[in-house]
Hints:
The chain is an alpha+beta fold. About 45% of the residues lie in helices and about 15% in strands. The protein has an eight-stranded mixed sheet. It starts with a helix and ends with a helix. The model is unreliable at about 365-610 (pLDDT under 50). Adenosine-5'-diphosphate binds near residues 48, 82, 106 and 107.
Amino acid sequence: MEEAxxxxxxxxxxxxxxxxxxxxxxxxxxxxxLGTAVKELVENxxxxxxxxxxxKLKDYGAELIEVSxxxxxxxxxxxxxxxxKHYTSKIQDFSDLVHVETFGFRGEALSSLCAxxxxxxxxxxxxxxxxxxxxxxHNGNITQRTPFPRQQGTTVHIQQLFYTLPVRHKEFxxxxxxxxxxxxxxxxxxxxxxxxxxxxxxxxxxxGKKSSVVSTTGSSSLKENIGAVxxxxxxxxxxPFVQLPPNEAVCEEYGLSATTxxxxxxxxxxxxxxxxxxxxxxxxxxxxxxxxxxxxxxAKVVKLVNEVYHSYNKHQYPFVVLNICVxxxxxxxxxxxxxxxxxxxxxxxxxxxLKTSLMEMFGSDVNKLSVNQKLLDLAGNLKNTLPEETEKxxxxxxxxxxxxxxxREGRKIMTLARLRESFSLHxxxxxxxxxxxxxxxxxSSPRQMSLxxxxxxxxxxxxxxxxxxxxxxxDSNMSVPSRYLRKLxxxxxxxxxxxxxxxxxxxxxxxxxxVNSESVINPEEEFCSSEEQLQNEHLKTVGxxxxxxxxxxxxxxxxxxxxxxxxxxxxNKLSEEASSSSPKVxxxxxxxxxxxxxxxxxxxNSRSSVPSxxxxxxxxxxxxxxxxxxxxxxxxxKKVIQQQQKNxxxxxxxxxxxxxxxxxxxxxxxxxxKEISKEMFAQMEIIGQFNLGFIIAKLNSDLFIIxxxxxxxxxxxxxLQQHTVLQGQKLIAPQDLNLTAVNETVLIxxxxxxxxxxxxxxxxxxxxxxxxxxxxxxPTSKNWTFGPQDIDxxxxxxxxxxxxxxxxxxxxQMFASRAxxxxxxxxxxxxxxxxxxxxxxxxxxxxxxxxxxGRPTIRHIVSLDLISPE
Length: 870
Ligand code: ADP
Ligand code: MG
């Protein structure tokens, strides 16, 4: 009782923490990293109406961050309040928050920065005759105040960010490159969304030269801002976002009713990557979302956009810039100090609009090709080129695919992707369709391409028009802050068409991928020229295997032979082909696949002549009379039981050696816990080979089964990973990479790793940003081609862990398939020596536990202690 009472007694009274300490404690939560520091300062400049913002960093921001603007400046009477906690010029009470138009409103940024670093502010208000230089202490009080000549505007100096928090400061300096990369990502968002504002950021390392990090030209168009940040080339891969009301299916999915839905709540504008394969990006590094022009991370929206994109381009991520305009009364921006989490009313509606719009854009806008129209326009030509019977299957099959998911206007429209898909399925010469070569050539001809692009130009113009209308509608009945309205109006860029125009050239990525895929799937070109008949057969089967995984139909997929064959060719290229299809095609695809699959079976049959299909067989019944005596049977049973009893007496098997007693718990535990470490492979005793595929090995009293192929494959893979220096092939002309300044820096700092991967570059430090690096050499290997997307991926990996050797995922895949081909196959008899070698290798590699494709290499079968007598 007493004890309990003393525990209940308050140890100390509850008292407020002194104000200065509170300030120090909380500031580190407002300014979390370099990114937030720069963000807050740039937001202040934008809020001050600046049209010119310069961000200067020293040592990536660790030494100094300086943001100067030509905004309105700070009035003398506000000098004191400038850096005090919760002192702001932007709102006065809570109710103002609803209509707040500025980025800032909490009055925390400058005061927190004061608490975390040494802050000096130079400012000259519009009305002032001369500027002022203000030095602040960590509590936000002015310690020095001197006149200072400068033009209208404000400059904020932040020295030694975080130095007042020693642990954070160390961490900050240690991770400065990562912090810097994240900061640039944040800054890019403001560069993109700030129309009519010129933003320029530079970095200076030590006493070195200032290098440009990112800069914009103050353009009034979103599109030009994107171009300024990511280079003109990026623009060519983008399509404008075209907003549609949610369709029935999507409404149902999200439980929305069309009647109660507010129709004009959201107005979404922006750009996104086309969904053709190779046009997207290998990472999510260029995705920017804004709500009422405020950069933010709307998790559900991000997820949905990527999901929809993935369903059209399975292996890539889109470039995204999306600005969601919504009545400010329907959102709460004051959720987190950095204001990047925003609560939205009617979020489901937003997601539904996005889903419908994106599906429509990807499903029909991109590569749209009206079969009807084409038949009308080119009726004569087509009839001539396509024999009658080759046309029929298309006509019959299309309705099937469309009953699955009827699109709004898609009934008579066949996308190019769908066409491609249908033809790629029929790559065997005995196809029902015309020969693939013919078809491929047809739709990759320049004429066809230009037909395509003119069509999409018309559509995008139409789209721009409808968008204008949408926005106007919204303007009239919403109380959106004037800042957004102004920006909304000019957001209806008419610049879209120029994208399409520049696309019209035949050297678009689209055109290239088309040619690529042709060379991959055209059986004649690819195989007959170099390989013999056998290989040819192999590859036909490969096609089926690949597709079977695509269509979820298991036909021959389970055969290991197929898997091996898969590795023989470039799985990427094949899936590249497959993934260019839209989900709408699935039904269509799987149907045609079935016929293809049966063909595969035929091919197989003709070779092995083992029927893989059940056939009815008549079995003749035989009758045999059986002598039976109950007496004899009972005697026999008795004998058996006696025998069994004897056995159990003599052979007393035991499950555990360790007794269950407190003193021996440790022994029992050890017995249960089986761990093998790499050193143990050397000690393993080889028992023999099982089923020509597995090695049975024994270590003390434990038996293991080891997959001979998987093990050898992993060893070969790791050796390739470690030791291969990929051979580069010189390009005829250096290729521009249009990397962002940060990515250029990452690349330049890790040149050696790129060279080991077969990439080489010329570096021109004096060239303008995005043009400092040119590609001069690419890795080559038989069937594998590499390109700028592999460089992007490496840069992405290296910005996370600079200096650490890594390989692009496609190189890893190539090594995996090479390793597979090199390795001992299942079905190969091995002698003791060979088996010993395999097991020894397992002890020498880093991860012996799985093959490069993920299959386990070793399994514990049994502990002999469990079954043998004591
Ligand atoms: P908030 O932005 O939430 O108001 P800050 O701490 O970021 O809080 O800024 C405090 C105040 O300082 C702002 O309200 C604004 O009046 C003034 N201020 C800050 N930066 C600038 C600037 N670059 N130009 C003009 N005034 C500024
Ligand atoms: Mg602010």
